[in-house]
Specification:
The chain has about 80 residues and is α/β, with parallel strands linked by helices. The chain has two helices and three strands, in the order βαβαβ. The N and C termini lie far apart (about 35 Å).
């Protein structure tokens, strides 16, 4: 069963462990707390389970580099 989290947290459910998503969406945005960004995030979360947000380029890069070569990653860079 999934646990409730605030909209600003990275969103993971128990299903993430089962790899039901075919890709991970990574969003790098220095202004991730702006209202329009939060609105866009809510819309994205309604269509994808695995959304990982970053404000720091190095942390984002590390996350991507640690993924398996078989992982499918889509990246949004804004801000």
């Amino acid at each position: 069963m999934a646990t409730a989290m605030s909209p600003n947290d990275n969103f993971y459910t128990a299903d993430d462990d089962m790899r039901l998503e075919i890709f991970c969406l990574v969003w790098l945005d220095a202004n991730s707390n702006a209202k329009d960004t939060r609105d866009a995030e809510q819309k994205l979360r309604s269509i994808i389970n695995h959304l990982k947000k970053f404000q720091d380029v190095k942390q984002c890069q590390k996350f991507i580099e640690e993924r398996s070569k078989n992982d499918r990653i889509s990246i949004i860079v804004s801000g």
